UniProtKB/TrEMBL annotation:
Annotated source species: Alkalibacillus silvisoli
Alphabetically ordered keywords of this record: Dioxygenase, Oxidoreductase
CDD domains: PcpA_C_like
One example GO MF annotation: dioxygenase activity
Name listed for the protein in its UniProt record: Ring-cleaving dioxygenase
Amino acid sequence: MELLGIHHVSAMTKHAQQNVDFYTELLGMRLVKKTVNQDDPSMYHLFYGDEVGNPGTELTFFEMTQIGQNHDGNNSISTTSLRVPNNEALQYWEKRLTEAGVEHEGIVEQFGRKVLPFRDFENQRLTLVSDENNQGVLAGSPWEKSKANPKHGIIGLGPIHLTVPNLDRTEPILTKLLSFSRSGTYTHHQTEKEVVVFETGEGGTGAELHVHERPDVLAERLGRGGVHHVAFRVKDEEEMHQWIDRLNKAKIGNSGFVDRFYFKSVYFREPNGILFELATDGPGFTTDEGEATLGESLALPPFLEEKREQIERQLSSIEY
């Protein structure tokens, strides 16, 4: 069994409308699914991605209107990367972010790639990463109706950064349980600390975890602008059950099989407390909506459909 790469990342926001404005208007991502948190239908769950929300392109947000600000720190998913086609695209984005007044660090190099670190309106840590020399997992397809220039558009998730106090606790989970392999190290441009890179599947930009070992910082306090979990791609439901068997045999506490309608999942925490999810590539977001109208109306899985009226009353309207 082999994980195919990053599936999605789920983060926290306090303001669904501002979130939609930032990620669709400025970043030009497509809102491919407007739905609710299936465990708490009183809150939105918004999915952004490429033109159809292919696995490996999905950045999602839970709206929690009473949530406090995230306090960055250890035991965390500390940065989410977003892939763009090439180095030229980074120059486009540097200019676009500057003109929009978005805080960024300029174009720097990270593990042999050009990257552009920046933050969103809630201080979410993001990095645009060039796919110019990518030899691994293929990216998604740019959205032709993007508010940003599709030529330079965001085409998927790149390396996900973890910050942990003790790499020795996390590494065996990645390598022995999940079959990631070490592919190198680099020195972080800000902290000057070593970052260890792990990859899975075909490797490359869409299949890496960058792990920062930082015993010198306090634990994160999760809030808006923070990341709830990262999910890794599993081929299909049959293989998902094999992964659950592997987790159980290793005595790793987990959620068991969870049907999210758009994909099937299992959740568990690695020893430093970071929440991981394994998620199948299918059936996908066109299961209940046509490709042309993805994200335009509130989509609910069948088991919540009978509560639609009640759920819609609890949600604010979103314009886009």
